[in-house]
Amino acid sequence: MRTRRNIVVALLGVVIFASIVLLFSLFIQPILPPEANYILLLFVAAVTGVVVILGEINNISELFAKWTGRREGEEVKSVARLVTTNESTQLHDFDVLWKELTDSQMQNAIKDHECVWIIPWSSRPVESVRLIYDKDFSRWKRYDNIMSELSRNALERWRLKKPDDFNQYEQGPWGEQVRLEKIKPPHDAHSYETRIHLSPTKFLYYVAIQAQLGESENMSLRERTFRNALMGLREREILELPSQFAVHIAVVSCDGKVLLRQRVVNTPLYPEAWEAGVGEFMHGPEHKTKFPHFDENGNPNLSLYLKNAVAEELIYSEAKPDDFRLRGFAVEYLTLAPKLLVVYKSDAPMEILLEGARHAKDSTPTVSAVRLTPRGIAQALHEYKKWGPTSKLAMMLALTQDASPKEEVSICKEVASQIAKIEQGR
Question: For residue 20, what are the domain limits?
Answer without folding.
Answer: 2-68
